[in-house]
Amino acid sequence: MTNALLKEPVLDQKRVTISSKRQFTIPQKYFAQVGFGKEAECLLTRDAIIIRPIAANQGGELAESILEDLIAQGLSGQELLEAFRKKQAQVAPAVKAMLSDARKVAKGEKEYETMDDVFAAED
């Protein structure tokens, strides 16, 4: 089965009922097979709504990078866990600071920094 709106073939099809509150239940088979968790994203195309899972491990590559660095420093066990939690807690404030700086650069209130400026070796 194919659908002109989708680039991928349709593997299965089910009809669902939409409640008065615009709610419907994703069939369990689809829910498990596609890998839904607690969140989904809805994409609007010209003639369709696509609902797909949001990966539960977003940011996994960053977490792995943090862990690799801490392990390379010789940390393990409880010490590793505590250091990882501290590093992970620093991520959101760092991203907020970067976004703030980006807004200032966009407004011409601040000079931009290059990759070399950001990742230069510390003296």
Summarize the structure.
With 123 residues, the chain is mainly α.
Report what the structure shows.
- By secondary structure, the chain is mainly alpha-helical.
- It folds into two domains: about 20-55, no CATH class; about 60-110.
- Helix content is about 45%, strand content about 10%.
- The protein contains four helices and two strands, in the order αββααα.
- The protein has helices spanning about 30-35, 60-70, 75-105, 115-120, and strands spanning about 40-45, 50-55.
- Strands 1-2 form a two-stranded antiparallel ribbon.
- Strand 1 and strand 2 form a beta hairpin.
- The longest helix is centred in the C-terminal third of the chain and has 30 residues, at about 75-105.
Name the quaternary structure.
Answer: single chain
Number of strands: 2
Estimated structural class? mainly alpha
What is the element string, with H for helices and E for strands?
Answer: HEEHHH
Poorly predicted tracts of residues: none
The residue fraction in helices comes out at 40-55%
What is the domain tally?
Answer: 2
Sheet with most strands = 2 strands, antiparallel
What is the distance, rounded to the nearest whole angstrom, between the alpha carbons of the first and last residues? Answer: 62 Å
Rg, rounded, reads 22 Å
- Number of distinct helices: 4
**Spatial shape:** extended
